[in-house]
């Protein structure tokens, strides 16, 4: 990172001055209106000193905010909110979190543009304060701020904004107990009437495969494949965009067969395996079904995924294998389920009689 003065010979015999800015292996030339009719002498020296003073000023700015100096025009022409939405759609981040964060970004900023040049640490602190004022839970606040920080880091890599994300305090991580079903509760749900049998089949399938709701919604007939004498699903995980392959067990095949019973109701060109309605409608169905089965918390599709993980560990599936089944990028993400199982063991010991 640095700045230097460049002299350019003119056809008439004089020289003009420009300034070279070097930043992360790249060079940017800044033209000036400074010229000297002669390449030597007092006039030349005076104009050269002006160019060096301008270079020194740019160098001091470069140390404070390199992106502002090196990418000034790009920062003025690129709108952060438009960039946020573009990155969200291109990278296919967790859609609902980013969609809600985008809404709050717009509410915070108003209808005016938000050029990258306006994004600074002060802006970050003010946006955090706005998020903190919302009537939402601490986990939701944390997720909104994480979403903005991730996009800011992407912009910083392209030198569109300074990287100040570490200086913005994160909201405290709130430990929320995992909501999962025991095998006995799943069996009770099975015999409890549900008003949407497609939602029922999808949820129970999730309990024995660990699929996220986004993957259940996207699963197509072509994703179901025969592999020798076993049936598998090969699907692109919507959250990570990685391809995964999962061999189906007997119980998951049972719910897959139930889902296929409703394929006669599909319209032409609809090859979805699970004909589940919108997420909000599905959640209403799950809540009512769970209430009817006396489940002590609101059912969600992620509860099915948690149930699969906890049930797997209780049945001696090791963490490394489970992390692969869950599509986790690291075993650390899976360790939370082992902790849940350890806690249930402690609870079981505490129930033993003592005297």
Overall 3D form:
elongated
Low-confidence sequence ranges: none
The number of domains: 3
Q: Separation of termini?
A: 74 Å
Average of pLDDT: 86
Question: What is the correct CATH architecture of the largest domain?
Answer: Orthogonal Bundle
Element-level helix/strand string: EEEHHHHHHHHHHEEEHHHHH
CATH class of the largest domain: Mainly Alpha
Secondary structure layout plus pairing:
Elements: E1 2-9, E2 15-23, E3 26-36, H1 41-64, H2 66-70, H3 72-77, H4 80-91, H5 95-109, H6 121-133, H7 138-157, H8 183-190, H9 197-207, H10 213-218, E4 224-227, E5 230-236, E6 243-247, H11 250-260, H12 279-292, H13 301-314, H14 319-326, H15 335-350
Summarize the structure.
This protein has helices at 41-64, 66-70, 72-77, 80-91, 95-109, 121-133, 138-157, 183-190, 197-207, 213-218, 250-260, 279-292, 301-314, 319-326, 335-350; strands at 2-9, 15-23, 26-36, 224-227, 230-236, 243-247.
Describe the structure.
By secondary structure, the protein is of the alpha+beta class. It has 3 domains: 2-64, no CATH class; 78-167, DNA polymerase, domain 1 (Orthogonal Bundle); 183-350, hpI Integrase, Chain A (Orthogonal Bundle). Helix content is 52%, strand content 12%. It has 15 helices and 6 strands. It has helices spanning 41-64, 66-70, 72-77, 80-91, 95-109, 121-133, 138-157, 183-190, 197-207, 213-218, 250-260, 279-292, 301-314, 319-326, 335-350; strands at residues 2-9, 15-23, 26-36, 224-227, 230-236, 243-247. Strands 1-2-3 form a 3-stranded antiparallel sheet. Strands 4-5-6 form a 3-stranded antiparallel sheet, with no helix packed on it. A hairpin with a 2-residue loop joins strand 2 and strand 3. The longest helix is centred in the first third of the chain and has 24 residues, at 41-64. The radius of gyration is 29 Å and the shape is elongated. The termini are far apart. The model has no long low-confidence stretch (mean pLDDT 86).
